[in-house]
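G., the chain you wanted modeled:
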Amino acid sequence: MSYSELYTRYTRVWIPDPDEVWRSAELTKDYKEGDKSLQLRLEDDTILEYPVDVQNNQVPFLRNPDILVGENDLTALSHLHEPAVLHNLKVRFLESNHIYTYCGIVLVAINPYEQLPIYGQDVIYAYSGQNMGDMDPHIFAVAEEAYKQMARDEKNQSIIVSGESGAGKTVSAKYAMRYFATVGGSASDTNIEEKVLASSPIMEAIGNAKTTRNDNSSRFGKFIEIGFDKKYHIIGANMRTYLLEKSRVVFQADDERNYHIFYQLCAAASLPEFKELALTCAEDFFYTAHGGNTTIEGVNDADDFEKTRQALTLLGVRDSHQISIFKIIASILHLGSVEIQSERDGDSCSISPQDEHLSNFCSLLGIEHSQMEHWLCHRKLVTTSETYVKTMSLQQVVNARDALAKHIYAQLFSWIVEHINKALHTSHKQHSFIGVLDIYGFETFEINSFEQFCINYANEKLQQQFNSHVFKLEQEEYMKEQIPWTLIDFYDNQPCIDLIEAKLGILDLLDEECKVPKGTDQNWAQKLYERHSNSQHFQKPRMSNTAFIVNHFADKVEYLSDGFLEKNRDTVYEEQINILKASKFPLVADLFHDDKDSAPATNTAKNRSSSKINVRSSRPLIKVPNKEHKKSVGYQFRTSLNLLMETLNATTPHYVRCIKPNDEKLPFHFDPKRAVQQLRACGVLETIRISAAGYPSRWTYHDFFNRYRVLMKKRELTNTDKKNICKSVLESLIKDPDKFQFGRTKIFFRAGQVAYLEKLRADKFREATIMIQKSVRGWLQRVKYRRLRAATLSLQRFCRGYLARRLAEHLRRTRAAIVFQKQYRMLKARRAYRRVCRATVIIQSFTRAMFVRRNYRQVLMEHKATIIQKYARGWMARKRFLRERDAAIVIQCAFRRLKARQELKALKIEARSAEHLKRLNVGMENKVVQLQRKIDDQNKEFKTLSEQLSAVTSSHAVEVEKLKKELAHYQQNQEADTSLQLQEEVQSLRTELQKAHSERRVLEDAHNKENGELRKRVADLEHENALLKDEKEYLNNQILCQSKAESSQSSVEENLLMKKELEEERSRYQNLVKEYSQLEQRYENLRDEQTPGHRKNPSNQSSLESDSNYPSISTSEIGDTEDALQQVEEIGIEKAAMDMTVFLKLQKRVRELEQERKKLQAQLEKGQQDSKKGQVEQQNNGLDVDQDADIAYNSLKRQELESENKKLKNDLNELRKAVADQAMQDNSTHSSPDSYSLLLNQLKLANEELEVRKEEVLILRTQIMNADQRRLSGKNMEPNINARTSWPNSEKHVDQEDAIEAYHGVCQTNRLLEAQLQAQSLEHEEEVEHLKAQVEALKEEMDKQQQTFCQTLLLSPEAQVEFGVQQEISRLTNENLDFKELVEKLEKNERKLKKQLKIYMKKVQDLEAAQALAQSDRRHHELTRQVTVQRKEKDFQGMLEYHKEDEALLIRNLVTDLKPQMLSGTVPCLPAYILYMCIRHADYTNDDLKVHSLLSSTINGIKKVLKKHNDDFEMTSFWLSNTCRFLHCLKQYSGDEGFMTQNTAKQNEHCLKNFDLTEYRQVLSDLSIQIYQQLIKIAEGLLQPMIVSAMLENESIQGLSGVRPTGYRKRSSSMVDGENSYCLEAIVRQMNSFHTVLCDQGLDPEIILQVFKQLFYMINAVTLNNLLLRKDACSWSTGMQLRYNISQLEEWLRGKNLHQSGAVQTMEPLIQAAQLLQLKKKTHEDAEAICSLCTSLSTQQIVKILNLYTPLNEFEERVTVSFIRTIQAQLQERNDPQQLLLDSKHVFPVLFPYNPSALTMDSIHIPACLNLEFLNEV
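Predicted structure as C-alpha cells:
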C-alpha cells in the first residue's frame, strides 16, 4: 500500500517529542508523491511542518484507531511500534487504572504505588479454572495458565518476574505463590502451602531493604520451585538465592536503610527476652544510621518483627535457634559500632578493652574478647620461611571489620535459606513443579560496579532465552495454521554473552587478575582494552582509563573498574574466622565450619533424574585449604546462572515484566521517559518487533465476518461458507496478497492492515451516516413545509369564517327585531282576550257548583235507606237457616248410630265363624311345615349326636375298664401311694375342667359381642351401597334435566357419545365387581377349607337386613355373610376375625372403586353441560333412552351377579368335594372316617336351611314392597290399624306383628332416603363448586397458554419449533406420569392381594396341621370342646414392627440401596414416614436401645449415601426432602403442644409416648443443613460453567454485540459453536430440571424458595465478578444483553411462582450494573443519576465498571477521567466495603420451617418394590 493511500487528510500520526517521548498529530492535507514534508496539526491546534524521507523510510508512525486504544493485549493493535505501545499502556494505567496488560506471552505489570483490592480470595477463585484470554490481564491469570499447562501437558513450568528495583517484582512473585498455595492446597495435613507463604516475610526481613527507588527492595535474586504431586497438590518447595548485596550491611546511601531485620530487632529490643542483646534504638548504631532516616512511612517494624517470628515458628525454627539468630544479628550491629583508635604513627590501631560494643559482640557470639580485640587490629602474613604478625592502619582495620560483618551476615543468610528449604522439603514423590524467578531487571546508574555487571549479565542470558522462546512460539503458530513462513530476523545477544563468559572473556580475565599477587583494577582494565577492543559490544570511554562500556541488548552501560577485584575476591581474614569457629555456641560455630566456603553462593543444581526435591546447601561442598584457592564470586555466579538457565530451558516459561511508572513513588503517575526506558530494557519492544515482523493481527473467520460484514456485498452474503466469504472480501479490499494469509482457523494480517480495514469500515459507516442524515434532513424540511402550508391555510380559513360570521350576525339582528315587534303585538292582544275569558269561566263555575250540591244531598238520603233494608233482610235469612241445619244434624246422627250398630253385630258374628279361623290358619301352614322340617333335622342331628355319644361312651367304658384293670394292678403293687396320686390327678383334672368352662363362657360372651359388631358392619355396608345407588340415579336424572334445551342434531350426537362413554364406564365397573366377586369367592373357599364344622341358623332370625336390591351386595352375598357369622362361632373367633378383616378390606376397595366411578360420572356430567341444548321432543326421547339404559344396566348387573353367585356356589361345592376327599384320605390314615363325614353332613344341612331362609326373605321382601305401594296409592284407607287390611295375598293373611314391623321398616327406609337425598344435594352443590373451580383453573391455564403462545410468536421459527417440542414433551411426560402412577397403583393392589392370598393359604395349611395334632391328642384325653383364645382385630395403628436382626436390611433397602426412581408415583417422602412408623413402634414397646440404634443407623446411612453420590442432584434432593420430613414427623408427633396445633385427633393418637427425641431432632437439623449445602454445591457446580457464557457472551439478542480484535490471547468462547458455549435457554432448562426434581421429591416449598434464591445469588455474583474483571464485556450492548437475560430469568421465576423467594433482590447488583452500562455518562446530572440508581453497587465496583467501559465502534465515546472523578467525589460519603468482587461462595443461612403433614400414619401403604416384607403392620 503506497504512502499516498496511508497518509491522507485526518490521518493521525506519532512524532517524537523531547518531553513526552511521543506526541500525537493529525494531517491537515493529503500526502503526495514527492512531498518533502507533512502538514500536521498538534493536539493544541499548533500547525507543524514535519520533514519526511520516504526513500529511507523516515516517516512518522501511524496511530491506531480509537477503537483499538486500551486493548488488553498490545499485539491486538494494528500498528505495532513504540509509541502505540506506550500510549496504550498510558491510557490503561491512567484512565482505566489497569496495571496489567498482555504483550503476547508477556504480562506487563506497572507498579501503581497504591494498594488495590484485586488480590483477594474472591479474585483468586474468579480466575481459577479460566482461560488466560477470558479475563482481564492479571498475575493470577499467568499463574492459572502455568498451573493449567502443568496439569494438561505434564511439563514443568516457570514464571520469570523481572524489572528494576521498585517495579514490583517481589510483590508479583508473592502473589503468584499465594495463588498456587490457594488453588493447589496441600494434599495432606502438613499445611505446606502455609509454609511456602510463610517464607516470604522471613526472606523480606533478611533480604529486603529500603532504597531511594523502593521502600521494600529485594537485594537478592531468588528462584522458588513449588513441587506438586500427581493430583497437583503442593507437596514441597525449594529456594535458590542469587547475589546477595552484602555491602548494604556496612554501607547505605542517603535516605536508604539497611536490611529490615536490623530495624525490626531494634524496635523489639524492649521485650524481656531481648534484654541480653543490649540493643537500643536504630539511630544508636553505625550500621543502621548510615542512611539517615531509619523509619519507613506506613511501616511498623515491631509488627513486622512479630510476623517474622511467627513465620520462623511455622517453619519449625526452635525458639533457641531464633534467639541465636537474633544474637548474631545484634552482634553485627555491635561490631559496626566498635570504636577503633589510631596510633600516632598511623600504621597501627587499637581498641579499648572497655569498649562496650566489643564486649557485647564477643558475649553474644560466645568468643574470647582478647583474641577478637587483637585480631581486629592485626593480621598474619605467611611466607615460605616464617610467619609475621603485622599491624594494620585505621582504614585497613575498618575494612577488615566491615568484611567480617558482611561475611557473618552472608553466612547467616545462607543458613536461614537452607533451614527454610529443609522445612519445605517433603518425602513424597514430586511429579512436577512450577518455578518462580524473582531477579533484578536491567540496571544502569551513573556509577555502575560489579553488582550491576552481574545483574546485567544475568538479564542478557534471560533475554536470549526469551527471544528464542518467542520465536519458537511464532513458528509453532504459523505451522499449526498451515501458512508459509519465512525466517524472522531477531536480535541475538550471543556475542555479548560470549564477551562476558567465554574463554578469556571479562569474567575470565577478572578471575585471572584476582589470582595475581599484586593485581589491581587498573591492570585488569588495561587487559580488557587490549583483548576486546575490536569487539562490537565492548568500548573504551574517551575520558577514562579505568572504565569500560558494554553494549547490552537494552542499552550501553559504562562500568567503573574500581572495586571489581575486591568484590570478586570477597576477602575475609582467616584469623577472625578461626575465632568464630571456636565459639561456644553451636550455631555460630556451625556457620563457619571448615566444610563450608566463606563466600555466599546459590544452591547447586538438583538431580534432574530424580523426581524429589533435593535440599542442598547454597554453598559448594568443596573443602579448600585456604582463601587463595576458593572460587571467586564471579565464577560462582556464572555457574549458578548456567544451572538456572538449564532449569528454565527444561520448563515452559511465562514472563512477567514489571515497570516502574515514576521515580517519585507517586500513585498512578506515569513518566513516559522512564517507562520507555524500561520497556526497551525488559524486552517488551523486542517482542513487539518480532510480532510486527510477521503477522501480528489474527482474526478467526467467525469474528472477521461479524466485524466486517458491513464491507461485504449482498451477493457475497448469499454464500453459506463464511470462510469463502472472508477470502473473497479480503482479496477485493486488499490488493497486495502478501499483506494477509489464510490459515486453517484464522486470518493473519501484516501490521497496519487491521487499521486499514477499520478505516474502510469507518468510511462505510460515515457514508451510511451521511445518507441517513441527508434523508432525515430532507424529511425534516418536508415536514416543516407541510406544517407552514397547513398554518397558512388555517389562517385563511379563519379569516373567511370571521367575515362570514359578522355578516350572518347582522342579518340575524335584523330578523330578530321584526320577530320581537310581532311577538309584542300578539302578547298585547292575548292579554285582553284572557281577561274576558277568565271572568266568564268564574261565573259558570259558581252556577254549576250550586246545581251539583243540590243533587248530592238527594242521592245521600236514598243510599242510607237502602243500607237499613239490607241488614234487616240478612238477619231474617240467618235465623231461618239455623233452624233448618239443626234439624238435619239430628236426623244424620240417628241414622249413623243405627248403621254402626248393624255393622258391629255383623262383625261379631263373622269373628265367631270357622271360616275366618281357616283363613288365618292358611297363612301359618308354611311356617308349620318349616318348623316341622326343622324339628326333623334336629331329630336327625340329635340321633347323630346320640350315636356319637354312644360311641364315645363305649370307648369311654373301655377306657374305664382298662383303667380299672390298671388300678387293680397298681393297687396290688402300691395300694396307698397310687390311690393318693389318682385322687390328686382327678382333682386337678376337675379344676382344669372348671377353668376351661369359665373361659368358654367368657369367650362366648366376647363372640356374641363380636358377632353383633359384624352384623352392624354389614348393615353399614348395605346402607353405603344404597347411598351410592341413589346418588347414581340422582346424577342420571340431573344429567337428563340439564339437557332439556339442547339442539336436536347436536343433542343426538352428544347423547350417543355420552352413552358410549357410560357403557364403557359401566363395563369397567362390572369388571371391577367381577374382580371383587372372584376375590370374595377365593376368600370363601379358603374360609370353608378352614371350617371344621357348621352350625344351623336359628329359624326365627330376622332377615330384614337383606332387604335391599343394591347391586354391590346381593341376597346371596348376605347369605354368605350369614355363613361367615356362623363360621365364626364354629371355627374359632381368632381365625374368623382375621378372615372377616379381609372381607371388610375388600368392601372398602369396592367403596373406593365406587368413588372413582362417581368422579368419572362427575366428568361425564361436565361434558354434557358443555353440549348444546336440544328440542323438547328429542329430549324426552333421550330421557326414555337413558331410563331404559339404566333399567337394562340394573337388570344386566343383577343377572350377572346372580350368575356369578351360582358359579361361585358350584366352585364352592367342587372345592368342598376336593377338601372332603383329601380329608377322607387324611382321616383314613388316622382311623377316623366318621368324624369328617359328620362334618360334611352338617354342612349340607346348613346349606339346605340357607336356601329355605333365602326363599323366606324373598317372599317377605315382596310382600313388604307391595304393601307399601298399596298403602301410598290407596285413597279410602283409614289410619286405624285394627281395621281390615287388604294385603297383596288376600288368601294368605300375614300376622299383625309382622305387618307392623314391616310398616316401621318402610317408614325408617323413607326417612333414610330423605336423609340421603339431602346429603346428595349437599354433595351436588360441593361438586358444582368443584367444577367451577376446575373451570377457573382451566381459564387460567388457557390464559397462560395464550401468553406463552404470544411469546412464542416473537421467537424465530427454529426457536418456535423447539419451544413447541418442549411443550409437547412436557405434556406427554405429565400424562405418562399419570398413567404410570395409575398402573403402579393397580399393580400394587394386585401384589398386595396376592400376598394376602399366600398368607391365608399358609394359615390354612397350619390350621390343618393343628387340627390333625388336636385329633391325635383327643384320643388320649377326655372329649372336651376346643376353646380358642379370642384376639380382637384392630385397625392398622400406623406402627411397623421389625426384628433387631433385620435393622441392617431395613437400612440397606430403605436408605443405602434405595433409588429415587423406585418411588415415583408414590407418596412423597415415603422413607421418612416408614422410618417414623418403625421409631413409633420402638417407642410403643419402650425399647430405647432400638430407638437409638435405628436413628443412628439411619443418620449414618444417609451420610454414606450422600458421600457416595456427592455429585447427584436428584439423590441429594431426595434425601434432603426425606430428612426434613423425618424431622417434621419427629416434631409433629413429639407430644409438644407447640407442634400439635394443626394435628387432627387421629394424628394426636400417633404421638410418641415414652421418649423425648429433642437431641436427635437437632442432629437431623444439622444433617439437613449439610445436605442443603451439598445440594447447593452440586447445583452451583452444574450451573457455574454455563453462567458466563450464557449471561455475558451468548447473543440473546442477535446482532447486538460487536466483535473487537483480541490479540495473542484469544478468548476461549470466541470460536463459533464452541464446546463451552451456552445460551440462556441452557440455564433455564437446568433450572427447570432442578425445580421439577425438587417438587417431585416433595421438598418443602419454603426450602425450594431458599434454594433458588441461593442459585440466583450465585448467578449474580459470578456474572458481576466476570463483568468486573473483563474489559471486553463492559459495553452498551452487553448491558442490553444482560437486561434481557435478567428479564427472562425474572419471567421464569414468576412462571414457577418463585418470585417471593427474594431471588430478584439478589440480582439487584447485576441489574444496576447493566443499567450503568447503558446510562449516559457525560454531565453532572448523569453522575447524580448514577449515584442515586446504583445503590447496591459499591463505589469501587461503580468506578471499576466506568473504567472498564469500552466502546464497540467509533460512534461511542469513552468515559472521561473527569466524569469518574465526579462520581468518586459524590460517593465519598458512602461507607462501602473495600471488597471489589462479590463472594460467590457465600451461602445464605438456611431456615427449615415447621411444615406438618396432613397424612396419618395408618394411611401409608408400603410398595412391594421396597422389599420390606419383614416389616409387620401393627
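The mean pLDDT is 78.

Shout if anything looks off.
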